[in-house]
Specification:
- The protein has one domain (50-197): Nuclear Transport Factor 2, Chain: A, CATH 3.10.450.
- A hairpin with a 5-residue loop joins strand 4 and strand 5 (182-189).
- It is α+β, with helices and mostly antiparallel strands and 198 residues long.
- Strands 1, 2, 3, 4 and 5 form a five-stranded antiparallel β-sheet that branches.
- Helix 4 crosses helix 6 (108-124).
- It is built from seven helices and five strands, in the order H-H-H-H-H-H-E-E-E-E-E-H.
Length: 198
């Protein structure tokens, strides 16, 4: 009888350990799903915020805020977060930030094709737009020409290519419109930045 009791005890111990391992696995899986879900909700909510942004009621008040909003759109676009339909809508939203001169030079269709081409380039080259850093308000350069106000600022951008990280700068030029809103006149990679040299 003692042998049977020992075997029963061993079997019960094995079952208890198996249940413990199963519970641990289920708990760990749920945590990973919740973490993954939170990241997905974060991106989804950012997509929703950008696609539902109301420029009439909440146009950015400063040069810095205008460029920050543009960077938010570009980060989501370059990281291929928008669906095809969402990208079409996002492109229209991005154009709300542009000066009339840039809009006239750059048609909606041409801009969308260029954006799709840039997104494909990022995808093909395994690039990810990691982050952007805006300058302090005191680092923005302002000037007035013929009674029109202009602003220039440099945004730091970090791009990941495979496992390597590249830092670069984008220089933005903005002009204040007749309603007092800062509009993007253009932007380009700073040729003196690290990313431009590589």
């Amino acid at each position: 009888m003692k042998k049977k009791a020992g075997t029963k005890g061993f079997a019960i111990a094995v079952v208890i350990i198996a249940i413990g391992v199963l519970l641990f696995y289920i708990t760990l899986s749920n945590r990973m799903n919740n973490f993954s879900g939170r990241n997905n909700v974060k991106n989804t909510s950012e997509i929703e915020k950008l696609l539902n942004y109301n420029f009439d009621e909440d146009y950015p008040k400063t040069v810095r805020e205008t460029v920050k909003l543009h960077c938010r759109y570009m980060k989501m676009a370059y990281n291929n977060e928008f669906s095809k339909d969402e990208l079409f809508d996002a492109n229209r939203k991005i154009r709300e930030l542009f000066d009339d001169e840039l809009l006239n030079y750059n048609t909606e269709e041409a801009q969308l094709k260029s954006l799709e081409s840039d997104i494909q380039f990022y995808k093909d080259n395994k690039q990810k737009y990691v982050s952007y850093t805006l300058p302090e308000a005191s680092q923005i350069t302002y000037n007035t020409e013929d009674g029109v106000e202009y602003a220039r600022l440099r945004v730091g951008v970090i791009i990941r290519v495979d496992n390597a990280t590249m830092k670069g700068d984008q220089e933005y030029l903005l002009r204040k419109d007749k309603l007092g809103r800062w509009k993007i006149l253009g932007w380009m990679a700073d040729t003196n930045s690290d990313a431009a040299k590589e």
